[in-house]
Amino acid sequence: MKIRKVIYVALGCIGLGLGAVGAVLPLLPAFPFLLLAAFCFAKSSQRLHDWFLATKLYKNNLESYVKGRGMTWKTKLRIMAIVTATMAVGFIMMERVPVGRIILAGVWVFHILYFIFGVKTLSPQGMQGACRVIKVGGMHCEDCAKKLECAFNETGHMTAQADWTRETITVHLREPLPNTSLIQIVNRAGYRAEAVWEMES
């Protein structure tokens, strides 16, 4: 058991290190490595797991997903295809680094198995009606409305229409997201999310 714990800690640290690099370099995907770190730390050390959950690396890259309800098959396949293509490039470039290839191959297998069996699959029908209306403090003009719409639309996971006269923005989600993620987008744009309502679209 002790050896297994050491292996999990080692793999978690490797995933954390590669995830940190991937968060900076666009050619290396951060998501699967950070998932590996979260999984391994949860299996090996509660202290390391709690510490990892408190880091900005986790909050900025995994927290919104972890708090979500799942993904559709279309979303799963899109993510798996992007990560597979990216990791294939790294695999080819590591022709003279067999250890690097082994690590990449292991992470790729973990990534595929996790998304197939570990992530809840939502039906497209279950996505219908995913609509939120957010009361936004500080949105007082048309330029403010356009700025907020761009902040939501550029994520690729939703479309938004803002009404500055009512200080509200209506967000139609393409995949499940917690209200905390929507509030963070409003706050990062420089405004205040004062309330969030779930509506039928």
From TrEMBL:
<dbReference type="GO" id="GO:0046872">
    <property type="term" value="F:metal ion binding"/>
</dbReference>
<dbReference type="GO" id="GO:0005886">
    <property type="term" value="C:plasma membrane"/>
</dbReference>
<feature type="transmembrane region" description="Helical">
    <location>
        <begin position="6"/>
        <end position="39"/>
    </location>
</feature>
<dbReference type="InterPro" id="IPR036163">
    <property type="entry name" value="HMA_dom_sf"/>
</dbReference>
<protein>
    <submittedName>
        <fullName>DUF454 family protein</fullName>
    </submittedName>
</protein>
<feature type="transmembrane region" description="Helical">
    <location>
        <begin position="100"/>
        <end position="119"/>
    </location>
</feature>
<keyword id="KW-0812">Transmembrane</keyword>
<keyword id="KW-1133">Transmembrane helix</keyword>
<dbReference type="InterPro" id="IPR007401">
    <property type="entry name" value="DUF454"/>
</dbReference>
<dbReference type="InterPro" id="IPR006121">
    <property type="entry name" value="HMA_dom"/>
</dbReference>
<dbReference type="Pfam" id="PF04304">
    <property type="entry name" value="DUF454"/>
</dbReference>
<keyword id="KW-0472">Membrane</keyword>
